[in-house]
Amino acid sequence: MPAVAGIGGSTMRVRRCKVLYLEPREQVEFDLEALLAGGSGLARERRWLVLAPHLGQEVEVDAVERELLGALSPDEWTDSGQLSDDVSAALKRLLKAGLVVSNSKRHATLRERDETLRGTYWHPLAATLHAFTRWRDADAVQSMQDTGTETAAELRETLGPPPVEAMDRGSHGQRLALPRTARTDFDLLLARRATCRNFDAERPLSIALFAQLMERVFAAQSQVRVSDDTVFLKKTSPSGGGLHPIEAYLIVQNVEGVVPGLYHYHPIAHALEPLPAPDTSLHELAMVAVAEQHWFANAHVMVLMAPRYDRTFWKYRSHAKGYRVVALEAGHLSQTLYLSATDAGLGAFITGAINEVPLEQAFDLDPITSGALAICGFGWRGEEMVTMELDPAGEVWRLEAITQEESEK
Ligand SMILES: Cc1cc2nc3c(=O)[nH]c(=O)nc-3n(C[C@H](O)[C@H](O)[C@H](O)COP(=O)(O)O)c2cc1C
Asked: What is the C-alpha separation between 210 and 267, in angstroms, rounded?
């Protein structure tokens, strides 16, 4: 078999990137000609796409490239001279795309991305999900308008009825009724928790309240020092393996004594670390961050929860539940924030509808080792409810007449 000679003049060692999935995708497009010819009016095209998380973008491959990807080991290096001439062009394209990596200097950048992924110990499916569900310029508001799903009534109209709100299992006669307990202050606090969509941009937040919330939610309360280089933190929320991978990156817009800007919060020092200003205005970044949801964009403080995946996956190596554990932790931190804010008389929110890519750029985060997972925020509630909040019992707003339809938004 003739060898692949002369890729770059000499042979090199190559191997397949560590993780990739192949998707046979069908694309359907409207085709007027097909319709006029008496057909369905739809043109269907099938393509093979490669999803490789170290690249973060899809790559289309042909049959020769697809077979070559299957033939190369992701771990053992192959001398390119041992490959047939027939695959020479395919190998070049795969090297250029980063689906095959080599020991050559020319391919160093994409080889390093592959090595970063290898060294972070992602579960391959989780890495792929994480890499390919990131947004760059999503507009959640426009999307709701386009799909007719802005209000609860529209949702019902467009999507039909949802699955029932509470499920019956077994017969009613077998139910074991549980005693109701007298409400304590803690119940009252829980009752006053509601997602805030109306921040008061005119009323600055004091540094004392800001610091109190950061300390309660994100600070290390104590430490367990196993050795000089192995330390576990104790926080007010639980964390898988006690690893507390979630970093708090802040967009501070309206706190007395804190220059508006980007910060990293240090959980042991309980201190803000100023970061370079974003390319756009702070408010523009805040809008993009929450996918144009203007009801969150003027929060006094936004907290980007950015897990250090390499820390959790240090213990849970290529673990099937690793990514899920980290996502659950963001929920815990968010609930602690909601309750701490409510206790302080403030409003809080969380959103998963975020544009990860510009956030990673603004905070200089590598999505393989770290990355953006969710945004929560807090600040003073405004006096008027402009955007709907879910407060049917009037615990927060003491409103007389919220229609059931509106309150379910
Ligand atoms: C993970 C998560 C993501 C959410 N994302 C959004 C969002 O993108 N936009 C929004 O307005 N509310 C968002 N919310 C808030 C919910 O809409 C809210 O919790 C729900 O309507 C119930 O209201 P309540 O929190 O006041 O009880 C999110 C909540 C959670 C837990």
From this structure: 14
> Whole domain around residue 41: which residue ranges?
7-118
26 domain-assigned: yes
My answer on whether 71 and 150 are in the same domain is no
For the segment 364-370, the average pLDDT, to the nearest whole number, is 97
Mean pLDDT of 145-169: 95
In the reported structure, the alpha carbon of residue 187 is separated from the centroid of ligand 1 by a whole-number distance in angstroms of: 20
Residue 172's pLDDT is 87
The C-alpha atoms of residue 304 and residue 308 are separated, in whole angstroms, by 12
> Do 148 and 88 belong to one domain?
no
Q: Using the 8-state DSSP alphabet, how is residue 381 labeled?
A: B
Amino acid at 228: D
Residue 16 located in a structural domain: yes
What does the pLDDT read at residue 406? Answer: 56
- Predicted local distance difference test score (pLDDT) of residue 2: 44
Do 14 and 55 lie in one domain? The reply is yes
Closest CA to 372 of 299, 315, 291: 291
Ligand 1 midpoint to CA 195 (Å): 6
Place of tokens 């949802």: 162
CA distances from 161 to 149, 158, 360 (A): 13, 9, 38
- Which CATH number fits the domain that encloses residue 49? 3.30.390
- Would you state the pLDDT for residue 407? 54
pLDDT (tens digit per residue) in 206-222? 999 999 999 999 999 99
Structural domain contains residue 127: no
pLDDT of residue 34: 83
Residues 33 and 111 in one domain: yes
Number of domains the chain contains: 2
Q: Are 357 and 134 in contact (CB under 8 A)?
A: yes
Q: Which residue in this structure is represented by tokens 């409103």?
A: 399
Same domain, 107 and 151: no
- The predicted model gives 297-323 an average pLDDT of 98
CA dihedral 246, 342, 274, 289 (to 10 degrees): 70
78 close to ligand 1 (CB < 6 Angstrom):
no
Which CATH number do you get for residue 234? 3.40.109.10
Nearest CA to ligand 1 atom 8: 351
Enumerate residues 6+ apart whose C-beta is below 8 A from 337: 213, 217, 303, 348, 350, 376, 378
pTM of the complete model beyond 0.85: yes
Ligand 1 atom nearest to 291, measured from its CA:
8
**Candidate from 33-42, 116-125, 396-405 with smallest mean pLDDT:** 396-405
Mean pLDDT of 78-97: 96
